[in-house]
């Protein structure tokens, strides 16, 4: 049950607000395969929730390639994702209703994502939800991205709400670790193919889509 003391809800973005995780995975797979890495699609799941420079660094350490340029590779991936968002991006089920519910209940609303500000802008403009957020934080320029809790802690500070009184909504395990480390109450919405994995037990709450958030906040 979500505590009645919760004062703010902080949303992850990719996979929570917009159905972009499969696009990230496809873009990463294509760009890394073009570099000659012998990856399979399932391998890309190892880095879900990490900041894009961390993703590139992860694979370089595992499978080094010549002429390493983290920024250039990351930019190629980001450009493909932005193009998709602008052309085909759609909100995840229940997003607009969930945001409206938070506002109606007098909760502050935040965004805490590993994605860059260019991605954030593309998503908020495409979904037309920028006005819904009281604070937004990106891990783009932080020393560490998720699973480090800093991006969540920064968002709580900007909202003016103690971290322990925030509900964090995540779809990735790395993001869930970050939110738990920030001492927040957590709601995990795992991808369908991961729902039965026992590791999600560390989330305080679980749901299949954001359509369940209003009832959870109401204590139903």
UniProtKB/TrEMBL annotation:
The residue range of the signal peptide is none
Keyword terms, alphabetized: Carbohydrate metabolism, Magnesium, Metal-binding
Q: Which Pfam families match?
A: Hydrolase
Q: Which InterPro entries match?
A: Beta-PGM-like (IPR051600), HAD-like_sf (IPR036412), HAD-SF_hydro_IA (IPR006439), HAD_sf (IPR023214), PGP-like_dom2 (IPR023198)
* Cofactor(s) it depends on: Mg(2+)
Question: Hey, which family's this protein in?
Answer: Belongs to the HAD-like hydrolase superfamily. CbbY/CbbZ/Gph/YieH family.
Put simply, this protein is called Hexitol phosphatase HxpB
């Amino acid at each position: 049950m979500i505590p009645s003391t919760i004062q703010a809800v902080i949303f992850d973005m990719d996979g929570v607000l917009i159905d972009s995780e499969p696009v990230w995975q496809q873009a990463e797979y294509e760009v890394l395969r073009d570099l000659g890495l012998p990856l399979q699609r399932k391998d890309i799941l190892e880095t879900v929730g990490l900041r894009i420079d961390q993703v590139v660094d992860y694979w370089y350490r595992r499978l080094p390639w010549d002429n390493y340029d983290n920024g250039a590779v990351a930019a190629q991936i980001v450009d493909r994702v932005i193009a998709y968002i602008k052309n085909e991006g759609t909100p995840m089920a229940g997003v607009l209703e969930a945001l409206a519910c938070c506002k109606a209940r007098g909760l502050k609303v935040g965004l805490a994502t590993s994605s860059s500000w260019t991605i954030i802008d593309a998503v908020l403009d495409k979904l037309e939800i920028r006005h819904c957020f009281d604070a937004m934080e990106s891990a783009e320029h932080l020393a560490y991205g998720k699973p480090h809790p800093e991006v969540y802690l920064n968002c709580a500070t900007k909202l003016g709400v103690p971290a322990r009184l925030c509900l964090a909504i995540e779809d990735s395990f790395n993001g869930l670790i970050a939110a738990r480390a920030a001492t927040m109450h957590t709601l995990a919405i795992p991808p369908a193919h991961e729902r039965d994995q026992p590791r999600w037990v560390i989330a305080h709450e679980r749901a299949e889509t954001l359509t369940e958030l209003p009832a959870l906040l109401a204590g139903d």
